[in-house]
């Protein structure tokens, strides 16, 4: 079980870091696309990072976390709140994917604003998960 918990924590760190890095990457890509003029070649970095780093980390974190609470029989009010925070992180993750598609299609309007909103949702979810995990030893039921 310690290996499963280590896998969960490591993948969660990578996923959370990705959720915090993607808005900067999207903003940089948006600036590149606007400055490119007629040469609108799509820089592959946002899609590559999203597909190769962020999404696998998210899937591993969610799968290993699910296994942890199933195998340990963990239930309680804190778990429902934590899963709600994870849903916020998943929503931000999905929003980043949608924004990457918009950039690739050449639709720039609203990308920066939506990226900031997705960042705030991701940050709120990350802080909630962190707070709930640290408060869990208080034995919420």
UniProtKB/TrEMBL annotation:
Names of the cofactor(s): heme b
Sequence intervals crossing the membrane: 6-28, 48-71, 77-101, 113-135
Cellular compartment(s): Cell membrane
Keyword terms: Cell membrane, Heme, Iron, Membrane, Metal-binding, Oxidoreductase, Transmembrane, Transmembrane helix
Pathway connected to this protein: Porphyrin-containing compound metabolism; protoporphyrin-IX biosynthesis; protoporphyrin-IX from protoporphyrinogen-IX: step 1/1
Mode of membrane association: Multi-pass membrane protein
Coiled coil: none
EC identifiers of the protein: 1.3.99.-
Reactions listed under catalytic activity: protoporphyrinogen IX + 3 A = protoporphyrin IX + 3 AH2
Family in the record: Belongs to the HemJ family.
Record function comment: Catalyzes the oxidation of protoporphyrinogen IX to protoporphyrin IX.
Protein name per Swiss-Prot or TrEMBL: Protoporphyrinogen IX oxidase
Organism: Halomonas citrativorans
């Amino acid at each position: 079980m310690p290996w499963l918990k280590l896998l969960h924590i490591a993948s969660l760190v990578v996923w959370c870091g990705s959720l915090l890095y993607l808005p900067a990457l999207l903003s940089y890509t948006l600036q590149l696309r606007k400055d490119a003029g007629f040469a609108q070649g799509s820089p592959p970095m946002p899609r590559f990072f999203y597909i190769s780093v962020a999404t696998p980390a998210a899937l591993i974190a969610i799968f290993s976390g699910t296994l942890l609470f199933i195998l340990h029989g963990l239930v309680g009010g804190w778990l429902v709140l934590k899963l709600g925070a994870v849903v916020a992180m998943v929503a931000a993750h999905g929003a980043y994917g949608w924004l990457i598609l918009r950039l690739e299609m050449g639709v720039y309007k609203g990308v920066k604003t939506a990226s900031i909103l997705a960042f705030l949702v991701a940050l709120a979810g990350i802080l909630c998960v962190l707070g709930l995990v640290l408060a869990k030893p208080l034995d919420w039921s």
